[in-house]
Every structure is written in C-alpha cells, then in structure tokens.
Amino acid sequence: MEVAGVFAYGSLLPGERYHAVARRAGLLRRTPARLEGHRLYALPAGYPAAVPGAGAVEGELFEFRDLEAALRVLDRFEAADGLYRRVVVRVKTPAGVRRAWAYLAEAAAVARRGGVPWPSGRWRGRRA
C-alpha cells in the first residue's frame, strides 16, 4: 500500500495558525481521517502533539501535488523545535484505511514540555 500523503491533526489544519505552510507545500486535497492507537496532548506553546497510546486522534489526510517536495517543506517546519519525528501510520478515512506520514512525538518529551491530555482527540477549536 502506497503512502497517500500526510496525516495532519493540529496547527496545519485549515483555520489553524500554520495552515499556510501546508498550502505552500502544495496541498491539493484534504480528507477527514482518524489515527487510532494514539493520544493527543496540548502543549503550553499552543499546539498539539500525538503520541502512541490508548485513544484516537482526529485530523485530515493531506494529499499534495508532489509528496516528496511537500515533505521537504514540512520536515523543515516540523523539525523546528525538535519534538516530532516523521513516521508512516495507517489512518481511517471514509474511503478506507490509507497509509500516511505523520509527525508524532514521544510521551516523555511531551511530558517534559508540560503537555496535558486532550481527551477529545480533536484539536480544531481547541475544546477538549
């Protein structure tokens, strides 16, 4: 199964602070998606982090005109604070399960930064 795009769940989503980064990377299409087996945390810096654990994270599968070029842009953006690592995950979409890249964090790193659980698993609107 080919990697379809990037699973976005936080500040890259439409209406969020850094959605322009995704547009600049060549965002072509967005599809609702869910990452199971992960938990969402809110960081004091004002953005979320997903870590492995019981629960699910809601977001979108972003597809790009040129995925490799988009990853170069997104890798620079996501590496800025050293928290995230890019990994391949499986996300559920209305069309079925798809493979996607996701920028995830380690639970210990999130705890060191003061992350608090975000029980809804949905970052949009910043309501737990």
Percent of sequence in beta strands: over 45%
Q: Give, in order, the helices and strands.
A: EHEEHEEHE
CATH class: Alpha Beta
According to CATH, the homologous superfamily is Gamma-glutamyl cyclotransferase-like
Q: What number of structural domains do the residues give? A: 1
CATH architecture classification: Roll
Helix fraction, binned, reads 10-25%
Low-confidence stretches: none
Number of strands: 6
Sheet bearing the most strands, described? 6 strands, mixed
Overall mean pLDDT: 95
How large is the count of helical segments? 3
Might you state the CATH topology name?
Hypothetical upf0131 protein ytfp
Distance between the termini: 33 Å
Strand order of the largest sheet: 4-5-1-3-2-6
